[in-house]
Amino acid sequence: MANEKFVYVTYIATSPEKVWNALLDGELTRQYWKHENLSDWNPGSKWEHVAGNGQRTVKVVGTVLECEPNKRLVLTWGEVADAANPAKHSRVAIEIEPVGDMVRLTVTHDDLVPLSDVQRKIENGWPRVLSSLKSFLETGRPLDTWA
Amino acid sequence: MRRGAKEIDRVFKALADPSRRELLDRLHTKNGQTLSELCTGLGMARQSVTQHLQLLEAANLISVQRQGREKLHYFNPVPIHQIYARWIRKFEEQRLEALHNFKAKLEKEGMEYGKRKVRLRNVHRHLP
Prior knowledge:
The structure holds two protein chains of two kinds. Chain A is of the alpha+beta class. In chain A, 27% of the residues lie in helices and 40% in strands. The N and C termini of chain A lie far apart (36 Å). Chain B is built from five helices and two strands; from the N terminus they run H-H-H-H-E-E-H.
């Protein structure tokens, strides 16, 4: 069975730089995502998705595959239990393109094991994260979808 | 009209058609289908399906990706989540708050009484 692929798209009235910062700056991600993404963002480096509260629980781990600021970020995405097992990681490509006076943000998550826990989590997660990010950048207010 | 309002208008209009909802359901069941796959068993002219897909794409409810010579269609639930956050969740807030309070109370009782189980017949007292 082919591995699953999902494509999430949102158009945001802002600049590519602001979207890029909003994805990587922990001060910002904590506000609309409740998490931080930590890495030096060099290709080959590790990255971690960490709860933004006091407990700093690591939720996702992976490797940076490509990093082109304000344009494109490609990561592997693994459960913490699979940290040392990259063959089990899925893959996320984040692309930022200006379209008129807006920005199209596309998140393509593929190499997912069908019906896995990871698939279930990301299917719930990305639509929330992207609509909260859009609201945050356009109105200054995130969506409170984690209560 | 505000830009955000236009965006959401396109989503509601795109959803206000049973054939387009059927196409979204099919993509939700199996993501990344070609036009031919989507036409199978739909009882609709290929050209009509193409038009419906264009409308869904304009509303950002699907995205189209090229893979070799094929165009694959992917369901994009982000605008539907925006509708949920704007139009549905606020009507659920009272219930969510009640559930939240109920959970907090159970956890408090759990701490006070150790492992003693909270009896189900008390549950109704905490719900609206």
